[in-house]
Design a protein that fits this description.
Strand content: 5-15%
Oligomer: single chain
Shape: elongated
Helix content: 55-70%
Number of helices: 29
Strand order of the largest sheet: 7-6-5-8-9-10
Length: 610
């Protein structure tokens, strides 16, 4: 570059920096001299020239270079600092101290300016630019704990959690009494499912800053993840005590009180949350779910419509791009066509597809769009003129309606739920095939499901399963040699674990696993038709067996889903379902003991439960 353009000062300056990195300081000095001859006002070249002169022991020359740099750029804190070093070497200590003090003040001032700018970029969600500001600030003041903490926060925003941890570690190393850094690190550790370490950091943060409501709040969220609801509730109480107008405390206290069965208190907390956050869809939806649980269907269905503000559902509905209006129940369906479509889980589709039959009495044509795995089963669904896959192109009808909005549109309450008896049928051919496969029946046959499948990477799915799942070692306590048990268990990790654990926990040859042959719900339905009873945790199999009218014993967690109501052991949605409820959170032993007793009675068997 310098050969092509001998007056290109920047090329000489960059060449000088490179030579310095290569340890060729004297040659670099010539480059900086060339820069200064071309651009006498180049403060950085003067500063770097002074550094090399100082390194070579040319102190007077170095002092002159720093002075010239400062005449051009008075707030060049690096030049001020190095001038102080040269003055100290020249025994001019008072002047050296003054120069160092000026450098420190300027450095702090520049650092604060960069920090403020970084915070502004962060507020604008320009995280890469914020990171540049914070890193520039650290170059000037490397030992400021708040800067490392700020960088950690940006790494969290950029989903670089390991890098965030390193920044928080450095922040705490620099300032062991920095409560905010402990709190920040604790939040990241909880995201990494390292709950014990996370709680330890929250304890440290609270000890250092006992009036910080956010430390209590976020620690409460970790306790929720760790399923310690009592500790979580205490922390939400502390959050609200310290900050009475903090909405998150009321929302999560509502969730926890609902899980504890304290429903009226939970409603009051959701109400308080919505007073602080009027119109918040997430709050209204959760209050709606609680109203549904309590049987307040009119209010519950209306509030549950706010689910469409949830990101996943909103995105799903946007992808489908309906051109026709949504049927609200007020519009006449006479001589009209209606598309009803699945929006959430398989169990939800099985529960609400019953409305196809109800609506076929009012409209010319009902089209039911469902998940591919349910297509074969529901193609014979009564009342649906056509059953299609939700992933295929959807027809243009007069109206559309998502399945779980149908109860609102149809003004469903406890007294008028349609079709609590059988409304789905397995094909006779499939039933006969399974009858032949199972062979001559000599004992009662019971189907088992003990685990709900997880959605990879979805934390809510993992958390849900933690409360509704039962370990195979526990479900195996239902074993009775006078009963044949059939696994209806699908999904990982349960299928793989069964292969590893079956021989260890199940004694005898009365357990059968046909999971590999249950390729769709039509096959599962046909197998269920050949069994006498289904025992299952809260999964789609409960809805399938209930829709078939098959006897189902639901092993239900204490913090129950809204559709199973409270206290009663029956369901208004399925006449064949019997509910076994945990008496306290996590108590499966009591549930399984009662089931063992009832198995003996149902099948007139001798013996007693262990």
């Amino acid at each position: 570059a310098t050969e092509l353009s001998p007056d290109f000062a920047d090329a000489y300056f960059n060449c000088g920096k490179t030579l310095e990195e290569l340890g060729q300081s004297e040659v670099a000095l010539d480059c900086y001299g060339k820069v200064i001859s071309l651009m006498p006002g180049h403060a950085d070249a003067l500063y770097r020239q002074g550094n090399i002169q100082q390194e070579l022991g040319l102190l007077d020359a170095a002092l002159q270079s720093y002075n010239l740099a400062l005449e051009i750029t008075a707030d060049h804190c690096e030049a001020l600092f190095e001038r102080g070093n040269v003055l100290a070497k020249l025994q001019q200590h008072a002047a050296a101290q003054k120069s160092h003090a000026q450098a420190s003040a300027l450095r702090e001032q520049q650092t604060n300016a960069l920090f403020s700018k970084g915070m502004e970029w962060q507020a604008l969600e320009k995280y890469e630019r914020a990171l540049e500001c914070f890193r520039s600030a650290i170059e000037k003041t490397p030992n400021r704990a708040d800067l490392h903490n700020a960088i950690g926060t940006i790494f969290v925003k950029l989903s670089k959690l390991d890098s965030a941890l390193l920044s928080y570690d450095k922040s705490i190393q620099l300032n062991p009494d920095f409560s905010e850094a402990y709190c920040s690190r604790a939040i990241v550790l909880s995201e990494l499912m390292r709950f014990s370490e996370s709680l330890s950091d929250f304890d440290a943060a609270i000890k250092l800053a006992p009036f910080s409501y956010l430390s209590f709040y976020y620690r409460g969220l970790v306790f929720i993840k760790a399923r310690d609801h009592q500790a979580a509730l205490r922390d939400m109480d502390s959050t609200i005590s310290l900050q009475p107008d903090f909405p998150g405390g009321y929302f999560n206290r509502g969730v926890l009180l609902r899980a504890a069965g304290r429903h009226e208190e939970a409603l009051a907390n959701f109400d308080q949350f919505l007073m602080l956050c009027p119109g918040n869809s997430h709050g209204i939806m959760n209050r709606g779910l609680l109203n549904l649980l309590l049987g307040n269907y009119k209010t519950g269905w209306a509030e549950y419509e706010h689910r469409w503000s949830e990101p996943e559902l909103a995105k799903y509905k946007a992808i489908l791009r309906f051109k026709q209006p949504q049927w609200s129940g007020k519009e006449s369906l006479e001589n009209k066509s209606l598309l009803i479509w699945s929006e959430q889980g398989l169990g939800d589709t099985l529960q609400f597809c019953r409305y196809a039959s109800l609506l076929s009495q009012s409209t010319t044509k009902v089209t039911l769009a469902v998940q591919p795995s349910l297509l074969l089963l529901l193609q014979g669904q009564e009342g649906a003129c056509e059953v299609i896959s939700i992933v295929d192109e959807l027809p243009l009808t007069d109206f559309h309606c998502p399945l779980m909005s149908l109860p609102l549109s149809c003004a469903t309450d406890i007294s008028n739920i349609p079709y609590s008896g059988p409304y789905i049928k397995a094909t006779p051919e499939s039933i006969d095939n399974w009858k032949e496969k199972l062979g001559k029946k000599t004992k009662p046959r019971v189907g088992l499901v003990w685990h709900g499948g997880s959605i990879p990477g979805k934390q809510t799915s993992i958390t849900l399963n933690a409360s509704r799942n039962i370990e195979f070692s526990r479900i195996s306590t239902l074993n009775n040699p006078n009963i044949e048990f059939y696994s209806l268990q699908k999904g990982e990790p349960a299928e793989s674990l069964l292969i590893d654990e079956k021989n260890e926990f199940w004694q005898g040859n009365n357990f059968f696993n046909f999971a590999s042959e249950l390729s769709n719900f039509s096959e599962t339905a046909a197998l269920i038709e050949n069994l006498d009873l289904i025992i299952s945790v809260d999964t789609s199999v409960v809805h399938l067996a209930g829709a078939l009218g098959k006897p189902v014993w639901l092993l239900n967690k204490f913090d129950t889903c809204w559709r199973w109501q409270t206290e009663t052991n029956s369901s208004p949605w399925y006449s064949s379902v019997k509910i076994y409820r945990q008496p306290t959170l996590g108590d499966w032993d009591s549930v399984l003991k009662q089931v063992r007793l009832d198995l003996l009675e149902k099948f007139s068997l001798t013996g007693s439960p262990s």
